[in-house]
């Protein structure tokens, strides 16, 4: 991270020289939305690989239990799983490097993966947010970048990133909403990412001042 220590005052003040701070929102449709509006989709090859898993799984369940064919189909299914998992891990490493090249402070919501799994089913584990965050934290530490986690009770989706108005309710399906207070139209994920960035920025500065 690029910091400047100003020495001509009583207390050294650490100032961020770059404004390369960003908030990130994980999603089911879009893997990550960045507060600058960038959307990072899961790569096509992963989607295709997941289809192959489904196919292999169907074939496995069709074979007679205890038969040689079933054993063959089982091995094939395991290979497909490993293939997806390796590809995904490679992609995570590459993404972690890209993001830490681009940003100095990366802000995320603290995820409750168990809670999300209960709510949304097994798709969450397919996307493996937890694995990605572990890789990202490792890469960030090596490169001297900061990962900031904000309180997971902060209503990042329901808060208007333009004026701070907080909605009482926001339906899970709602992709976009108009703020009743300032009339701005908020894309769900980008709005959340902007709020996560703002909260993360204040946390990071408080910690270092
Ligand atoms: Zn507003």
Description:
By secondary structure, the protein is an alpha/beta fold. It has a domain at 3-41 and 104-208. Helices cover 49% and strands 17% of the residues. It contains six helices and nine strands, in the order E-E-E-E-E-H-H-E-H-H-H-E-E-E-H. The strands form three sheets. Strands 5-4-3-6-7 form a five-stranded mixed sheet. A two-stranded antiparallel ribbon has the order 1-2. Strands 8-9 form a two-stranded antiparallel sheet. Helix 1 runs antiparallel to helix 2. The radius of gyration is 21 Å and the shape is globular. The protein starts with a strand and ends with a helix. Bound molecules: zinc ion.
Order of helices and strands: EEEEEHHEHHHEEEH
Structural class, judged by helices and strands?
Answer: alpha/beta
Shape: globular
Number of helices: 6
Mean pLDDT equals 84
Strands ordered across the widest β-sheet: 5-4-3-6-7
Which kinds of small molecule does this entry bind, naming each only once? zinc ion
Main β-sheet description: 5 strands, mixed
How far apart are the first and last residues' alpha carbons, in Å?
15 Å
Relative strand content: 15-25%
If you compute it from the alpha carbons, what radius of gyration comes out, rounded to the nearest whole angstrom?
21 Å
Low-confidence stretches: 1-7, 11-15
Question: Helicity range of the residues?
Answer: 40-55%
Strands, count: 9
Chain-wise SSE layout:
Elements: E1 3-6, E2 13-16, E3 21-26, E4 32-34, E5 39-40, H1 44-62, H2 68-102, E6 105-109, H3 113-120, H4 123-127, H5 129-143, E7 146-150, E8 176-178, E9 185-187, H6 188-208
The protein binds zinc ion.
